[in-house]
Amino acid sequence: MRAAKTGLATRVAVVALALAHAAGGAQADWTYQAGPEEGRHAGFVCAEGTGERSGERLCFGLSCNAGSALAFGMSAEGAADLLARSEVDVQIFAGPRVLAPLRFHTIGLGTFEAPLEEAHLPGLERLKAGARMELRYWEAYDAPPAVWRFPLTGSRTTIETLEEVCPMPDFAAQERAARTEADPGAKVLADMREACAVLGGEVTVGAGYATPIDLDGAGAADLALNHGALSCSAAEDLVCGPAGCLRSVWQAQEDGQFLRVFLNTAQGIAAEAPGSLRFTFSGSLCGRVGAGPCEQVWSLRDGEMAPVE
Predict the structure, then answer these.
(1) Are 15 and 112 in contact (CB under 8 A)?
(2) DSSP string covering 125-193, please?
(3) Phi/psi at 92 (nearest 5 deg)?
(4) Smallest Cα–Cα separation from 31: which of 20, 16, 40, 39?
(5) What pLDDT digit, counting tens, does each position of 275-291 carry?
(6) pTM listed for this prediction
């Protein structure tokens, strides 16, 4: 329920950013706006499309609403390639420096939001210090990106004002939520199919993909996934290499969901004592590139697997 309320509040803030953009027209510099709703704060910059994008407008910024954390927002006007999108992966450059990727989700026609993650904090500093930024997104994987350019004039004052009035996300809770899935096997399979389809292939599920394990002795079945058992017809070694195949381990939670406690390349996983697993590695996890194979016992600590010292 708390997550739902937070999401709603963030949506209100980002929609307000879009309305401010529509009412105020293109902004030459970053602009800060507060209200009229109590607790709403937004900072944004807009750009007019040129050439093939003449008549289009894109706004980018950050915002929060009462009770919600600071988040990224983006709104498009007249951009046909964005109006029908449910998700948009965005890459931002501030000068020559690349910021951590942003995945925007639609919250309305042409209006998007993306969570502010801990990995974005260095990027905020670059946005404050830079002179201009470039925003890129892809209409298709095999097509050049759409490129929008924005000034960063006024970005430092605007972003620092938002940091003073908007709470930062709970990064620890955010990170844990990103590692939580209701059905890990289905999610990994769906992601693999999407990646394989981009290459023009199809996925075949091989033996040993999902193995129930008893990780913690709590009774509920935990899960080990061998991603390498998912074979892509267009790239057989998509998630495998000399060191082994990508594997993940998921701990069953009391609410019926699963928490990912391990994600790395390994050659094998075997049950050890409750709370521990024996991994077979090769390469850098054995001490140096090209080393191995070696066996290591890892134990469960604070929601993650870590080597036993």
Answers:
(1) no
(2) HHHHH-SEEEEEE-SSTTSPPEEEEEE-TTHHHHHHHHHHHSPPP-HHHHHHHHTEES-HHHHHHHHHH
(3) -120, 135
(4) 20
(5) 889 999 998 889 888 78
(6) 0.72
